[in-house]
Amino acid sequence: LPQARAGIISTVEVLKVMEAFVNEPNYTVWSDLSCNLGILGTLLSHTDFYEDIQVFVRDVFSPIGERLGWDPKPGEGHLDALLRGLVLGKLGKAGHKATLEEARRRFKEHVEGKHILSADLRSPVYVTVLKHGDSSTLDTMLKLHKQADMQEEKNRIERVLGAISQPELIQKVLTFALSEEVRPQDTVSVIGGVAGGSKQGRKAAWKFVRDNWEELYNRYQGGFLISRLIKV
Fold first, then answer.
1. Nearest CA to 127 among 104, 82, 95, 93?
2. 1: Cβ–Cβ under 8 A, 6 or more apart, which residues?
3. Model pTM greater than 0.85?
4. C-alpha dist (Å) from residue 232 to 10, 23, 139
């Protein structure tokens, strides 16, 4: 993909190569494919091809998603659990119908306390329901954040809040980032999640940083977080 971004080879050729990995079982390979498709999706988000790349993601990731399923199989290792989370999150964000329906079902049971999601499934489920959710979904997620006993769970939720799509809800997430509910060192993760969540999120996050620059700079001056904020 770096060669395609530099104009050395055609992006079409890169996508053809990606299609060849459809039966690949290796987590590292899928992680690399996911990262590169994410970059491509960002580049195409300002064009008419954005929905086409979502269709491509669904086509490439659905066979491995069906093979892995939602639940661990006997003898699975740590990388299999990581791969399942990666694949289901990618399919969910891309609007794969069966993945979205199952994520919503499991999220409802999780919130109601009927069946608590395993740690490795929480991020993909959260990001899926948020990406295709509404104000009620966001409110539920913020409630889960408030109720979480473990900082690890709070951070997990903070990183995915930016998946929400509607402009007014994106603003709500950005306001939340500077609230007392979020530790100062974690504010950057929330803003970064918004910036990476969508085209609308990137614009909103950039405006938010400019509008609140004085407060943000005073928080992080001289520290690595201010440079990380600018990078995201």
1. 93
2. 14, 36, 39, 40
3. yes
4. 27, 33, 25
